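Sequence in, structure out. First:
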Amino acid sequence: ALFTKWFGTVKPKPIPNVSYALFALRDSLTVGTSFLAPPVASRYVQKELGVSRQVADFACQMTLPCMVQFISTPIHLVSLDLYNREGATVKERVALVKKNYWGSAWGRVFRTLPGFGLGGVINRNIRVKLNVWTGNTR
C-alpha cells in the first residue's frame, strides 16, 4: 500500500478495497508457488520425467515462483490502475495492461528469482540440514 501511494501518479489518497484484495490475491499466488507448490510439483516431475529428487526440487523451486508472475502481473497492474485512474473504463484498463505487461512481468520475474527461487532453495537446504543435525526427521 505504501509503494502504491509513494509511486502513484496521483496525489496520495485512500487505496480502494478492491486494490487491497487484488494485492492479496497476487501475493497469495506468489507465496503458494514459492512454498506450497514446489514439493508437489517436484514429486510429479520425479515420477513422470524420471528426474532425481535433488534436480526436481531445485528446478521447481527456481521456476514456479517466476512462472506465476506471468499470471499475477495483470492482477498487479489492474490493482495499481484502480488507484491511479479511478474512473478508467475496462477497455482503458485492458489497454494499460497490454502496454505494460511484458516489461512488468519480466521485472517481477527478476525481482522474484533471488528471494523466492534461490532463497527458497537455500532455505530448504538449511532446514533439511538443521533437521538432520537436531534429529528431527519427521
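Second:
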Amino acid sequence: MTPFFTMSLLFGLTFGQTASLCAPSEYIIHVEKRECAYCLAINTTICAGFCMTRDSNGKKLLLKSALSQNVCTYKEMFYQTAQIPGCPHHTIPYYSYPVAVSCKCGKCNTDYSDCVHEKVRTNYCTKPQKLCNM
C-alpha cells in the first residue's frame, strides 16, 4: 500500500464520525385526535442523516464493542407543547413533541427516541389542517 492510501484510510477510520451527515433537519408532524375537529401540522426539527456503521458480517471475529451500529440521535433537545384546535372541553387538546437543537451519532436511546422503523407509518392529516409554527 502507498503511504498516502494508508494515511487516508487511518484518517477516515479515526475521524469518520465527525464527517457524518447527522444534523437537525426540518420536519412536519401531523397530529390529530379523534375528538378534535382539526389536524395540526407542526413544523419542528428532528435528527436525521447518515452515521458510519460497521459491517457485522465478521461478528465471530470481532469484540462486541466493535459491532455497535450508530444512529443519528439527539445530543441536545427540548420539548414544545402545541394545542390542537377544535377540541371539545372534555378532551385534553395539548400535544408535546421534541425539538432537536443538536445531533450526534450514537446508540439509540429508547427513553426519548423511536428506535424501530415501522413499515406502515402515516404522517398526514385526515381532517382539515391547521398549521402551527413554533
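Remark: Residues 18-131 form a domain with the Cystine Knot Cytokines, subunit B fold (CATH 2.10.90.10).
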